[in-house]
C-alpha cells in the first residue's frame, strides 16, 4: 500500500466522523430548542437556576426574545431542523453532495453570528444569562467550528481531485 492510497483513504474517514459529530450537535441543539419552544408555546417557566447572573425569565421575556414578532426560540428550532435536513440530504442527493457543504456553512455561519449577538445582549445589555440559551450558543459555536473543518476538508478533497 502506497502513501498515496493511505492519504486518500484517511480523508473520507475524517469527513465521515465530522459529519456524524455535526449531526450529534444538531440533535443536541434541536432538543434544547424544542424544550424552549415548548415552554414558549405552553407559557410555562423554564427550569433554570435563578441566582446571580442566571435569570432565564429576564432573557426570555426581554424585547430581544422576538425577531419581527416571532419568538427566536421558534427560529432556533427551525434553523437546527434545516441544518439537520441539509446534512441528511448531503449524503443522498447529488446537488447537496456537491453544494451542501457550502450551504450548511453559510447557514451555520449566520446562526453562529446571530448567537454571538445574543450572547452580547445577555452579558452586556440584559446583564442576565439564560442557561438554556447559553448552552445553545456554546453548542452552535462548536457546530460552527466543526462545520469550518468539514468545509475545509471538502474543499481540500476537491482541490486534490482537480
List the helices and strands and how they pair.
Elements: H1 3-42, H2 56-60, E1 66-67, E2 70-71, H3 72-92, H4 94-126, H5 131-161
Antiparallel strand pairs: 1-2
Describe what this molecule looks like in 3D:
By secondary structure, the protein is mainly alpha-helical. 80% of the residues lie in helices and 2% in strands. It contains five helices and two strands. It has helices at 3-42, 56-60, 72-92, 94-126, 131-161; strands at residues 66-67, 70-71. A two-stranded antiparallel ribbon has the order 1-2. α3 runs antiparallel to α4 (94-126) and α4 (94-126) packs antiparallel against α5 (131-161). The model has no long low-confidence stretch (mean pLDDT 90).
Q: How many runs of DSSP E, i.e. beta strands? A: 2
**Assembly category:** single chain
How helical, in percent, are the residues? over 70%
Distance N to C terminus = 23 Å
Main sheet: strand order = 1-2
The percentage of residues in β strands lies in under 5%
Q: Decide which structural class fits the backbone.
A: mainly alpha
Number of helices: 5
CATH class: Mainly Alpha
Instruction: Point out poorly predicted stretches.
Output: none
Mean pLDDT over the full residue set: 90
Task: Sum up the structure in keywords.
162 residues, mainly alpha, de novo design (two linked rop proteins), 5 helices, elongated
In short:
By secondary structure, the protein is mostly helical. Helix content is 80%, strand content 2%. It has a single domain (19-161), classed as VKOR domain (de novo design (two linked rop proteins)).
Amino acid at each position: 500500500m502506497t502513501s498515496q492510497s493511505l492519504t486518500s483513504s484517511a480523508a473520507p474517514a475524517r469527513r465521515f466522523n465530522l459529519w456524524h459529530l455535526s449531526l450529534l450537535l444538531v440533535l443536541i441543539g434541536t432538543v434544547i430548542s424544542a424544550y424552549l419552544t415548548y415552554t414558549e408555546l405552553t407559557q410555562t417557566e423554564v427550569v433554570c437556576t435563578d441566582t446571580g447572573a442566571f435569570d432565564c425569565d429576564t432573557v426570555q421575556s426581554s424585547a430581544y426574545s422576538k425577531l419581527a414578532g416571532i419568538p427566536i426560540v421558534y427560529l432556533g428550532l427551525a434553523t437546527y431542523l434545516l441544518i439537520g435536513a441539509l446534512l441528511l440530504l448531503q449524503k443522498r442527493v447529488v446537488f447537496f453532495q456537491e453544494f451542501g457543504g457550502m450551504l450548511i456553512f453559510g447557514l451555520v455561519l449566520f446562526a453562529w453570528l446571530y448567537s454571538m449577538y445574543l450572547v452580547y445582549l445577555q452579558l452586556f445589555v440584559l446583564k442576565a444569562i439564560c442557561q438554556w440559551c447559553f448552552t445553545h450558543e456554546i453548542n452552535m459555536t462548536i457546530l460552527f467550528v466543526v462545520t469550518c473543518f468539514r468545509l475545509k476538508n471538502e474543499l481540500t478533497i476537491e482541490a486534490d481531485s482537480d
